[in-house]
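Weekly structure sync - notes
Attendees: PM, LS, DV (DV joined late)
Agenda: review two folding runs queued last week.

Item 1: First target. Sequence and structure tokens pasted below for the record.
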Amino acid sequence: MMTLRSYRIRIFLTCWVIFSLHFATDFVREHYNVISLADHASYRLDGYEDMHPDIFMTKNHGAHHGANPGASILATVPYLIFKPIVDKIHKKVIANRAASGNKVTAVYKDPRPDRVKFYKQARERGLDIKFGLVGFITQVTTMAPLSALSAVVIFSVFIWLGLTAKTSTWLALIYAVATPVLFRTGFLNQNIMVGIFSLFAFVLVWRPYANVKLGYKGRFILAGFLAGLGLLCDYSGVITLGLLGIYVWIKRSDEVGVRSGFIDSWWYVLGALAPVLVLWHYQYVSFGSPFYPGQHYMPPVEWIEIGYKGFGFPEWKLLKMLWFDMRFGLFTSGPVLLLGLYLPVLLRSDRNILPKRETMMILAIIMAMSIFFSAVQYTQLQYYTGIRYLMAIVPLMFILVGAVLVKIPKAVAYSLVLLSLTVSWSTAMIRSQEGIVDSILRVFLEGFQLPWMATLSRMATQYLPGLEGKQLSALPFMIFTAAVIYGIWAIKLPAKSLISDKVS
């Protein structure tokens, strides 16, 4: 019989392998900061300003992009371990190309002209191999393990709520592969990081278990730090940072009273201070003021005239797009997530396995985040990369989803999970700019695919000429991955657990 520790290890490894297999080659703005931090210990992106539309020049401060630096900072740490290898490969490639005397070609067969232009620039500057390695390393060492760890936390939450290890395992795997988590983990992304850190912070404050050794001060400090990391990754993190702070006060007030609860909740604020100071430092050295966000300095773009730099009043039109757009909607990208909104019905029938307060807090975060982004005009640009902004609520929302899945008829639950798995896996494989339906159709018509293989086939002229014009089959890699996952669950781990397996 497996211990809970064994389940957690296997879930983590399974999800890590699956996420890594679906690595996408998108080189996003956060990657530039990873390179700059690792190579120069600087946030400046001078020399890259013509390679990404979000990078711009500011007077006396050089080139930067408008996003928060948290995702880049976190990804830089593990990347530094592999940097010597990357540098060695990069130098060797440049030397070999120079020695060959051949003209540098840059053929990239893609219907999107901006992708073709980017590859041409990277190839001509000798950055193509380096960019590819940076993208792969940051995904495998940062995004994949972070999302895998969030699946382990999902498992633990349902264990603590009284479900069996088998049921909790299936819920954790559904979260990992049948929601947009699989799609967004494909490359470095700050929005899902906000959601993952919010999940960690919420569980620390909630503490749905009794055998924890960390006192309330330590839990609140760590929860504040994690929620602060969410803000360091993206300004939408201010929503969860604030609401979780209120939740800390409410929870502590139950134990020591309102006044003492308010005083004790300042430990949460103390924990959040470090990431906030890092954000202020970034904004100061990058733009000259610690208090204005990077978007404040952006050059004029579409919709920037609405409200403050594109942030105006909430709009019903944008909210509908965020939830139901067939290209990037929350519920179209993960149909099973609709069950999260059904949980209040279970509350009235006393069938909810979640405490009422925690249910309402998660719902409050879902609604607050949805309303926040319905005021952001750039919501309309998500069609280019798929669901993005509302990834910040998916990890927490799945706690509600899981609580409903175990209570509704199995036929309904299985059907919704199968539909959601089809959508999630198809979008993760194809990543079509045309939308979710196009991704699904292409999987059924063209077969299983992997995003990194599709990219390789488009640029095969340079690296693997023998594959030029051929569609590579992903099936062998998927079969191998399935064998690895079978091995993960078949292998016997030491019986002695380093962590208590008692469930309270």
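Item 2: Second target, run right after the first with the same settings.
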Amino acid sequence: MASPKLTKIINDDKEFLFQNYGERLQASFVKGDGSYLYDQDNKKYIDFFSGIAVSSLGYSNPALHKAIHSQIDRGVIHTSNKFYNQEQIEAAKLISNTSFPGKSLFVNSGAEANETAIKLARRYGLSINKKKFKIITFTDSFHGRTFGAMSATAQPKIHEGFGPIVPGFIYAPFNNVKAIRKLLKKDKHIAAVMLELVQGEGGINVADGDFVKEIFDTCNQKGILTIIDEIQTGIGRTGLTYVYQHFNITPDILTLAKGLGGGIPIGAIHAKNYLSEYLPAGTHGTTFGGNHLACAAVIAVLSEIKKNTFISNVNTLSDHFFERLKKIKQKTGYIKSIRGLGLHIGIELAEDGNKLVDEALSEKLIINCTAGNVIRLMPPLNISMSAVDEGMNILEKLILKYGEIYENTQNKLR
């Protein structure tokens, strides 16, 4: 039963807002501290979701708060991309220093970053051949909800009801070496391959090494661009600063957002230097992209990620998560598989997982379900070990509870 405060919030939400997010979960958060959130009734929750991998440094992080407050206190939140912007330059330097030498273009979201990458790839391909504009993407991918990014997303349910999608995308089966080899060999009009190395919305599906090697070897030989979509996986999430670093590859274009600003909206593409000539003045832009406040947040986040112990601590936490989950899996057949990298973890259940998400919230644990039956864990990267165990104790109890119910139901059906 919702409290009076929450009931009013729910009613106002339905009266004044589009209901395009469906029925929201039964909480409204008003305060955060570390890896904890507090709701409208001051109840405390453990956050294993980070606002879809956005709050990379958790809540009330001193370094991020200092950077944001300092920028606001200087009175310059936004000027215009008509002027030089020192924070934008410093943010771009940090991206280049932590990834590969190149140039960055800042936008406002992950969808915008992917739109920019698509435009850049098309401009590049069409400069070679007037028919070279096709882009390969993969089944169960997710690249955003704007028209280009939605069209790149190889999920029919995302396209439904919007009429003709943007042409030029070829959907290939994920992790199928033979299929991608055949496509890249036979079609001479492919400009780029766009790939999530860990598919987030698709169910935390990790790319196979041989599959990635085939793509990069062939693309490098044929002059086809490689775009790695790190909207969800970038900025330390997988136990390295960028997920592509696990695969001994370097993409031509990298797209970033979510954790990049630690909660402040920002997106970016980072591309090898030679590609910048394909987006000259007037070919792309955004009013708010790379504003002073957002870039101050990027500087703070990347500076924290660069600290010597930060990434090693992510991996220590990751090992602990996976070890606990393996032990839970040994106790129940309700867990079909556990997968992921770093603190980007998927738990595939034997049935739909949304009821588990709802009950976890009632137990003051925030988790998520994607692809129907995959529980997605993406806590703040600096979560404490005690908070991990506190949350995992709740999760274990619920998995074992629903596992027993599921197994009893299956036994009755046999």
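Discussion on item 2: Residues 288 and 378 are 28 Å apart (CA to CA).
Action: LS to circulate a short write-up before next sync.
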